[in-house]
Amino acid sequence: MYRVDISARYSGPVPKSPRPSRPQSRRAALLEFAILGLLHDGPLHGYELRKRLGSALGIFRALSYGSLYPALRSIVDSGWINERSDDADHDAPTSKRTRITYQLTAAGKEHFQGLVAAAGPETWDDDDFDVRFAFFSRTEAQVRLRILEGRRSRLEERLAMVREASLARRERMDSYTLALQKHGEERAEREVRWLEELISAERRAALDPGPAADGIGLSPTNQRKSTNNKE
User: Fold this and answer.
1) In CATH, what class is 20-116?
2) Residue 102: how many CB atoms within 10 A of its CB?
3) Alpha-carbon distance 72 to 184, whole Å?
4) How far apart are CA 5 and CA 102, in angstroms?
5) Above 90 in pLDDT, residue 161?
6) Are 75 and 67 in contact (CB under 8 A)?
7) Average pLDDT, the chain
8) In terms of DSSP H, where are the helices of 117-219?
C-alpha cells in the first residue's frame, strides 16, 4: 500500500493554509478571547501573558507554553496581533535569547469588539462565564445584563436538577455524600444571590448612570472574596 511521506512536515517550514474561521475547541476560543482582551490594554511578552492568564483566569492556571505559543502563532497568522523582537532578556544578562512582544492590531481590536458583543448560551457556562466576566468593563451594558441573566437561569436550572436528584437518592446516600450534596447546593445558591445583586446593580446603573457599584469589574472569584470579607 502506498503511503504518503509526511516527514517534511516536521523537518522544514510548513506552508501556510487557510485558518478555520473559528477555533476548533471551546477552550481554544476562550484562550484566544482572553489573549486579545489582555493585549487590549497594551503589548505584553509571552511570559507576562501566561502569568496574567494564570493569575486572573482560573481556567488557564496550568496553561503551558506548549499551549500558549501555538495559540499566539495562530492569532498572529490571523492578523489580529503582531509580534516584535526585543533586545536580549534584561533579567538574564548572559542570555542571548530574544523576547517577543505581542501587540493588538487594528483588525484585532475590531475582532475583539465583535467577540465581547456575543451573549449566547455558551457564555453562561462555567469557564466561559468566568472569562467573559473578567472583561466586563469592555462589554456593553445590555450584553453584560443578558449574560448575567442567562448565567442565573443556567444555575437555577442546575440547582433544580441537583435538588430533584438528591430527593430521589437521599435514602441511599451516606453522610459524606449528603454533606457534599448540601455543599454544592449552598454554593449554587450563593452564586445565584450574587448574580441577582449584579443584575440589580446593572439595572440601576441603566436608569441612573453613576459610579460603578462596589465589586463590579472584579473577576467572579475575587468578587466573591470581597463579598465574603464584607460579611
Assistant:
1) mainly alpha
2) 21
3) 37
4) 35
5) no
6) no
7) 79
8) 126-134, 141-169, 175-207
Which three three-digit cell numbers place residue 50?
Answer: 501566561
126, 44 Cβ separation under 8 angstroms: no
Pull the grid cell for residue 48. 507576562
Neighbours of 113 (CB within 10 A): 14
CA–CA gap between residue 98 and residue 127 (Å, rounded): 34
pLDDT tens digits along 89-136:
455 454 556 789 999 999 999 999 999 999 999 999 988 999 999 999
Total count of residues recorded for the chain: 231
Buried b (16+ CB within 10 A) or exposed e, 59-95: bbeebeeeebeebbebbbeeebbeeeeeeeeeeeeee
> Within 13 Å and on the Cβ side, how many CA atoms surround 147?
25
3-state DSSP call for residue 21?
coil
Quote the pLDDT of residue 96. 57
In Å, what is the CA distance from 115 to each residue of 108, 140, 172?
Answer: 10, 12, 46
Helix (H/G/I), strand (E/B), else coil: 201: helix
Predicted pLDDT of residue 87 = 61
